[in-house]
Design a protein that fits this description.
325 residues; alpha+beta; 6-stranded mixed β-sheet; 3-stranded antiparallel β-sheet; 8 helices
């Protein structure tokens, strides 16, 4: 049982199931029906600058709520996750951090907060172990009983897939809780956070992978290795290298493409690897011209490719044959 459903609630918090005409009833669905989707994994999707900060901090840091939410005048700090996938591209960014739903909600209470009139409507629950938030509309929610957009049958969870699910976790999300990192396409027209100023709407997932991985190798951050090359049960213990393969392709064509002229004298070896790391970091931070100039100190395009494969192989401890063509 989720904590709180077996304990006595203090104050004036409403008991779960007490009001069958609660706000959430408008978003009811039938488990295993047309608009039913299972919830086993939820994701936090970030734009690349925010994803770099997550990598540096080792966590998704809970923040105040600034949008039209009922919680925007409270001191509640949350980390956002969703159970949705985005067939037309994510509206939140391009770097997706996946977390186990069961692990995130263990020992916590669920409070209904609101529904926001987006397209489609977004329902919002607060997941917390800190008690009821200080707004009158917050209602303790029982997924085993209540007729809302989130339900549980036994140990299985389901959501209304016709709506956008937004879960506000009142805590930081440690990277150690993360299961994998995936690079995703941004929605071509909609960005919930940056609106028309978002440049990532134009990115392919391969470019996003290159920018993020370029930052990791440039800063020698190996803490996310197992999330980018996860163990998914492949034969002979091989790791999944789909994301790394995309990153390698993006780095190669982004740095050593048509605009690079290799006029230097540095051949394969330690110095070449240093130059590749430097150019990858420049590229990741938006200095594409500088990345080209740094890479041009190498003797040839082939030298660049060898250095890139060696750096990626050593950084991620994955054979180059598993991610290079």
């Amino acid at each position: 049982m989720i904590a709180g459903f077996v304990s006595e609630m203090a104050g004036d918090a409403e008991e779960p199931g007490a009001n069958r005409m609660a706000e959430w009833s408008a978003y009811d669905f039938t488990i295993l029906g047309r608009n039913s989707a299972s919830v086993t994994e939820v994701t936090h999707v970030a734009h690349i600058p925010d994803a770099r900060k997550i990598a540096d901090d080792g966590q998704v840091t809970a923040r105040p709520i600034y949008d039209e939410s009922r919680l925007n005048k409270t001191r509640v700090h949350v980390s956002w996750v969703s159970g949705n996938t985005w067939s037309n591209g994510s509206i939140y960014g391009t770097v997706e951090f996946a977390f186990s739903w069961d692990r995130l909600i263990s020992g916590k209470e669920i409070y209904w907060i609101e529904a926001i009139d987006y397209r489609p409507t977004a329902f919002r629950f607060l997941i917390t172990d800190r008690g009821r938030p200080s707004i009158p509309q917050a209602v303790l929610y029982d997924p085993d009983v209540d007729d809302g957009p989130l339900k549980r049958r036994g140990s299985d969870w389901f959501r209304n897939s016709a709506l956008t699910s937004e879960f506000m976790i009142e805590d930081n999300l440690a990277i150690s809780f993360c299961q994998k990192i995936t690079f995703v396409q941004h929605h071509s027209n909609i960005c919930r956070l940056k609106g028309n100023s978002c440049h990532e709407k134009e990115f392919t997932w391969v470019k996003s992978a290159a920018l993020f991985v370029g930052y990791l190798i440039g800063t020698r951050n190996t803490t996310l290795n197992s999330l980018i090359t996860p163990d998914v049960g492949l034969p002979k213990g091989r790791l999944s290298t789909t994301m790394l393969r995309g990153a390698a392709s993006g780095l190669y064509f982004g740095i050593a493409g048509k605009k690079s002229r290799f006029t230097g004298h540095i051949g394969a070896g330690k110095e070449a690897r240093y130059l590749f790391r430097a150019s990858a970091l420049q590229f990741a931070m938006g200095d594409t011209s500088g990345a080209h100039k740094t890479a041009s100190l190498l003797a040839s395009q082939e030298t660049f490719e060898v250095a890139m494969n060696e750096v990626l192989e050593r950084h991620f401890e994955v054979p180059a044959a598993d991610f290079s063509d």
